[in-house]
Amino acid sequence: MKFFVDTADVDAIRELNELGMVDGVTTNPSLIAKSGRDILEVTKEICDMVDGPVSAEVVATEADAMIEEGRKLAKIADNIAVKVPLTWDGLKACKVLSDDGNMVNVTLCFSANQALLAAKAGATFISPFIGRLDDLNLDGMDLIADIREIYDNYGFDTQILAASIRSANHMSEAAKIGADVATAPPAVIHKMAEHVLTDKGLAAFLKDAEKAGIKIV
Ligand code: G3P
Q1: Total-model pTM
Q2: Which of 8, 129, 170, 178 counts the most CB atoms within 10 A of its CB?
Q3: For this chain's UniProt record, which GO biological process terms are given (predicted)?
Q4: Cα of 165 to ligand 1 centre, how many Å?
């Protein structure tokens, strides 16, 4: 499973990128607003830093305007994936932008039918939002499983990009089901390294090392 980082915080991206943890980046208008930076400028900086796809989202709601914005975003760098919402206009924009040769990430997906439409419209990525379904007492992972089954039944190339990931468990669950990509905030990726038995075991090893006077350098 590829790891995308869901942030527009360039320092956080840099740190994870240096560890080889970044196969791509996703942003959205909320994350750009949180960065306090100009969308074109911060997106260019991210694109220059990472090799993989960097999703940049349109803010228009009508297809022609989304296409115009998408074409402008795509000019930022070769690794831009234009992100459009899963509305009827978003699907129209997806078709045109992907026919133009751009990567397109269709976002705000909450049903298998929406994912099926996005694949038909030529989406490179479909972004089902796990956490927001869980917030409604639904099971976001069921949606990932349904989309996986449907895409595999018909050999769709669209990659399942598990989004709205809120916990380390979401990452392993998405990987078990076979999501192609998961995009997570940097804090969730850090959390994946944590285990209480690792901390406990390390404390015991260090205590014994100190007692025995073990020195390596
Ligand atoms: O990947 C989509 C993400 O940015 C939304 O996450 O936590 O706001 O539902 P969240």
Answers
A1: 0.96
A2: 8
A3: carbohydrate metabolic process; ketone catabolic process; pentose-phosphate shunt
A4: 7
Rounded to the nearest angstrom, the distance between the alpha carbon of 87 and the centre of ligand 1 is: 18
* Candidate list 83, 191, 207, 215, residue with the active-site label: 83
Write down how long the chain is.
Answer: 217
Buried b (16+ CB within 10 A) or exposed e, 99-126: eeebbbbbbbbbebebbbbbbebbbbbb
Do the beta carbons of residue 134 and residue 112 sit within 8 Å?
A: no
* DSSP-derived 3-state class of residue 27: coil
> Domains plus CATH for the chain?
2-187 (3.20.20.70)
**pLDDT tens, position by position, 73-116:** 999 999 999 999 999 999 999 999 999 999 999 999 999 999 99
Confirm if 195 and 203 have CB atoms less than 8 A apart: no
